[in-house]
Design goal:
Elements: H1 7-10, E1 13-16, H2 32-37, H3 39-45, E2 49-52, E3 56-57, E4 69-73, H4 80-92, E5 96-101, H5 111-117, E6 129-131, E7 150-153, E8 158-161, H6 176-191, E9 196-199, H7 223-226, H8 232-242, E10 250-254, H9 260-269, E11 273-275, H10 297-312, E12 318-319, H11 329-333, H12 340-353, E13 357-361, H13 382-393, H14 400-410, H15 447-451, H16 457-470, H17 472-476, E14 478-482, E15 489-495, E16 502-508, E17 515-517, E18 527-532, E19 544-546, E20 552-557
Parallel strand pairs: 1-2, 1-13, 2-5, 5-9, 9-10, 10-11, 12-13
Antiparallel strand pairs: 3-4, 6-8, 7-8, 14-15, 15-16, 16-20, 17-19, 18-20
Helix pairs in contact: 8-9, 9-10, 12-16
The structure holds 1-deoxynojirimycin.
1-deoxynojirimycin binds next to loops.
Length: 558
C-alpha cells in the first residue's frame, strides 16, 4: 500500500467539539461561523488537521451522534455554505478537515428508519428488526448507555436494536443496500473535498445473525458478540476498496475494547489508524459506570508499550489522552491544582513523543480541567443523565448525592464546557447564555492570557507541534523503553531508522522528586536538550539527575 511515510503520520490533529468552541451569534451554542472566526488560532497553534465532531442535522439526543440527515447541517451550527466556507479557510492555511462519520446507527428520525418502521421497501430491512412478544426482548444485550439494547416499536410490532440510546437504531450492515447508501454518502462528502473521516464505533457494525445471549458478567452484556463482530473486516475492506482507496485522505476508526491483533487487521483493511482505549481503562473500576480506581504508572506504561510495539511500529496508531467522551486529561492523569501547568505540559510531552499521530482535544492545549458540577440539572449529556436515573431506579443508589462526586469526575460533560477565550463574561465564548456551564477557572485558564505568556501550556503545545514537524525521529523513530518498572518515571528512547539522532524522553508522572539513572548500555557522544517543562537545570551529564514534580525532558543524543 506504500504507507511507510504519509502525511497523516506526520500530522497533528486537533479535535473540535463545535457546540463548545466559539459562538458567533449570541445564542449560547458554538457554531461553524464561530470556528471560522478562530481559524487563525488553529493556524498559530500549527495543527495540520481538524476533526469536527458531528454537525449534521440531528435531534441532538446524543450530541449529534444521532444523525437525521447526513447531507445537511444542523441549524444550531449554521448551513452547508458555512461548512464550505470553513473548509476553504482551513484549506487556504494548509489545514485539512475530517468529518465524524456515524455509520453504526442513525437517529430514529432519519428517513430510512421512519420508512423502515412502516415496513416501506427498500428500507424494511435497513435496521435490526426482530418480531416477537412485546414483553421479552430478543436477547439479553445491553446498550452502552445502560439498560436493554432493544426497544419495542408499536408501529411495526417488532423489536429493534440500539447499542446506544433508543433514539439511535443500529443499521443492518448485512443488507447490501445499506452499505451501498452509506458508501454513496461517504463519496458525497469526499467529492465536497473533505479530507477524511473519523469513523464512530466502527468495530460495532457487524453482529451475528443468530443474536445469541451475552455473558451476564460482561458489561455491556453481549459485547463479546457485537464488538469486532463476524463480518466487520469484510465491511471495512469493502468500504475501503469501493470508496476510500480512491482519495488521498486520512481515516481513523473509533474502536472500543479492541485488541492489538484486531487493530492491525483494521490497518490491513485500509483504515490508517484506530483509537484504542486500553490506556484509558486503567482507572476504571468494575462495579459500574461511576466506579473509578487508582491507577499506577506500570499500568499506563504496559498499555502504552503494548500498542507502541504491537501497532504503532508494525502498522500505525493514534495517540490521545482525552476527547469529548472522557474527563479532562490533566484532572485525570496530572494534577489540576498546584501543578496544573507542569503536569499538562508533561502529558503533552508524552503524547507528542510517542510513535503515532497525536490528537489534541480542544482546550487541552490550554491545560483545561474538569469543572465542578454540583447538581444533576447542570448536566447536558444524555448518557450521564440516563446512567444516573438507572442507578436511582434500580436501587443501586438511593440519592444522587451518593454518587455526585463520581459523576462529577466521569461525566462526558467535563470535556464539553466552552473554550475560554478570555477572562470576560462567559469566558468570551458567547454573548448569550452558554448551553452548558463554563469551567470556573477561566479567569486563569484562557486563550488571551496564555497567548501572552511564554511559559503557558499553550506556548508549550506550539513548540511541541513545531518540533514534531521538524524532527522526523519524533514521528518515525522506534520506541525503546527504559526503566521497565520505575513507579514514578516513564522513560524511553525514540531510535531512528536511518542511524541519525535518537531522542531520550524522561517523564516524571507524579509530584515527587525521583532520581533518573540512564541505563549503562545507552551510549552517546553528545547530548542536547530539545524541550522540557522547567527552566533548564545546569547539568554536566545526563547519566543521573533528580527530576522536579511532573518534570518532562526530551534530549537529543548523538
Ligand atoms: C462514540 C462517540 O464518541 C460518543 O460520543 C457517542 O455517544 C457514541 N459513539 C455513539 O455514537
Amino acid at each position: 500500500m506504500g504507507r511507510d511515510s504519509a502525511w497523516w503520520k506526520e500530522a497533528v490533529v486537533y479535535q473540535i467539539y463545535p457546540r463548545s468552541f466559539y459562538n458567533s451569534d449570541a445564542d449560547g451554542i458554538g457554531d461553524l461561523r464561530g470556528i471560522r472566526e478562530k481559524v487563525d488560532y488553529l493556524d498559530e497553534l500549527g495543527v495540520d488537521v481538524v476533526w469536527l465532531n458531528p454537525v449534521y442535522d440531528s435531534p441532538l439526543v446524543d450530541g449529534g451522534y444521532d444523525v437525521r440527515e447526513y447531507r445537511s447541517i444542523h441549524p444550531d451550527y449554521g448551513t452547508m455554505e458555512d461548512w464550505e466556507a470553513l473548509r476553504d479557510e482551513l484549506h487556504e492555511r494548509g489545514i485539512r478537515l475530517i468529518m465524524d462519520m456515524v455509520t453504526n446507527h442513525t437517529s430514529d428520525e432519519h428517513e430510512w428508519f421512519r420508512k423502515s418502521r412502516r415496513g416501506v421497501d427498500p428500507y424494511r430491512e435497513y435496521y435490526w428488526w426482530v418480531d416477537g412478544d412485546p414483553d421479552s426482548p430478543p436477547n439479553n444485550w445491553e446498550s452502552f448507555f445502560g439498560g436493554p439494547a432493544w426497544s419495542y416499536d408499536e408501529r411495526r410490532e417488532a423489536w429493534y436494536l440500539h447499542l446506544f440510546d433508543q433514539k439511535q437504531p443500529d443499521l443492518n450492515w448485512r443488507n447490501p443496500a445499506v452499505r451501498e447508501d452509506i458508501f454513496e454518502m461517504l463519496r458525497w462528502w469526499l467529492e465536497k473535498d473533505c479530507d477524511g473521516f473519523r469513523f464512530d464505533v466502527i468495530n460495532l457494525i457487524s453482529k451475528p445473525s443468530a443474536l445469541p445471549d451475552g455473558d451476564p458478567d460482561l458489561t455491556p452484556r453481549g459485547r463479546e458478540y457485537f464488538i469486532d463482530g463476524p463480518r466487520v473486516h469484510e465491511y471495512v475492506r469493502e468500504m475501503y476498496d469501493r470508496v476510500l482507496s480512491e482519495y488521498d485522505i486520512m481515516t481513523v476508526g473509533e474502536t472500543s475494547h479492541i485488541t492489538v491483533e484486531e487493530a492491525r487487521r483494521f490497518y490491513e483493511d485500509g483504515l490508517d489508524m484506530v483509537f484504542t482505549f486500553q490506556h484509558l481503562h486503567i482507572d476504571r473500576g468494575d462495579t459500574g459506570p461511576w466506579d473509578f480506581d487508582d491507577w499506577d504508572l506500570d499500568e499506563l506504561r504496559d498499555a502504552t508499550a503494548a500498542w507502541q510495539r504491537g501497532v504503532s511500529e508494525q502498522s500505525w496508531n493514534s495517540l490521545f489522552l482525552g476527547n469529548h467522551d472522557q474527563p479532562r486529561m490533566v484532572s485525570r492523569f496530572g494534577d489540576e491544582g498546584r501543578y496544573r501547568v507542569e503536569s499538562a505540559k508533561m502529558l503533552a510531552t508524552y503524547l507528542f513523543t510517542l510513535r503515532g499521530t497525536p490528537f489534541v482535544y480542544q482546550g487541552d492545549e490550554l491545560g483545561m480541567t474538569n469543572p465542578t458540577f454540583e447538581r444533576l440539572d447542570e448536566y447536558r449529556d444524555e448518557e450521564t443523565i440516563q446512567q444516573v436515573m438507572l442507578a436511582l431506579r434500580s436501587g443501586g443508589v438511593s440519592t444522587f448525592d451518593q454518587i455526585r462526586e463520581a459523576v462529577d469526575f466521569w461525566s462526558r460533560d467535563n470535556a464539553r464546557t466552552p473554550i475560554p477565550w478570555s477572562d470576560e463574561r462567559n469566558a468570551g465564548f458567547t454573548d448569550g447564555e452558554p448551553w452548558i456551564k463554563v469551567c470556573e477557572n477561566y479567569p486563569e485558564v484562557n486563550v488571551e492570557r496564555e497567548r501572552d505568556d511564554e511559559d503557558s501550556v499553550l506556548q508549550y503545545y506550539r513548540r511541541l507541534i513545531d518540533l514534531r514537524h521538524s524532527t522526523p525521529v519524533m514521528v518515525y523513530g522506534r520506541y525503546a523503553q527504559l526503566l521497565d518498572d520505575h513507579p514514578e518515571i516513564y522513560a524511553y528512547l525514540r531510535t531512528p531508522t536511518d542511524g541519525s539522532r535518537s531522542l531520550l524522553v524522561v517523564l516524571n508522572f507524579f509530584d515527587g522528586e525521583p532520581t533518573f539513572r540512564l541505563p549503562n548500555d545507552v551510549s552517546y557522544d553528545r547530548w542536547e536538550k530539545l524541550i522540557g517543562n522547567y527552566e533548564s537545570a545546569s547539568r554536566d551529564s545526563i547519566r543521573e539527575f533528580d527530576l522536579r514534580p511532573y518534570e518532562a525532558l526530551v534530549y537529543v543524543l548523538e
